[in-house]
Amino acid sequence: MRVLLIGAPGAGKGTQAARIARHFGLTHISSGDLLRRHVKEETAIGRQVAEYIDRGDLVPDAIIMDMLYKPVMAASASGGYILDGFPRTVEQAEAAYAVAGELGVQVQLTVHIEVSPEELLRRLKARGRGEDDSDSVIRHRLKVYEEKTMPLIAYYAEREKLVTVNGGRPVDEVTWSIVVQLQRARRKHLVD
Ligand code: AMP
């Protein structure tokens, strides 16, 4: 099974991806976690991306594609993946499709975790306290999501690869909805 999770900052992507990975025996690949590890370990990639992350801007596509290639290939060869945080733009989706299509490891289904803007802001402010995300960075990340990432929802819907779950509910209920959607998709042979 090869699936993507799309959701705004604060939608619970990371938490849900980890749970879904465990449930179906998939590899959880989080572009944000990988980038943060590079920053922490002060690698060459880490030095290039730190500023973008601090500002809440997207990291350039070439760096992301390069960083994800190996983990995605490895995961595809061993049970599949759940990608969280990638793609973030239609350009990234198209680039990924071009690379993965040739290798037969393209995405089978995208799960959109939908949460209202008011709820997102409430969660992000609660989470940000004491950490380094200021209000303006939070707002900027939400704006980047709306402008750059939301068009992906129509992109995958047009390709009949989208399911949406209501992410405004308690964590367990959201996980369960995703599991049900993926099981349904499996019965329809949309995912393996
Ligand atoms: P996340 O943990 O997914 O919210 O990602 C944290 C930050 O990492 C984002 O705000 C971006 O700066 C960067 N990032 C993560 N994934 C991507 C991606 N696919 N493309 C560009 N930047 C990304």
UniProtKB/TrEMBL annotation:
Class in the EC hierarchy, top level: transferase
Reaction equation(s) it catalyzes: AMP + ATP = 2 ADP
Binding site for AMP: 31, 36, 57-59, 85-88, 92, 141
Alphabetized UniProt keyword annotations: ATP-binding, Cytoplasm, Kinase, Nucleotide biosynthesis, Nucleotide-binding, Transferase
One BP term from GO: AMP salvage
Family matches, as CDD domains: ADK
Annotated region (NMP), positions in chain: 30-59
Superkingdom, taxonomy of origin: Bacteria
Residue numbers binding ATP: 10-15, 127, 169
Keyword Nucleotide-binding: yes
Protein's UniProt name: Adenylate kinase
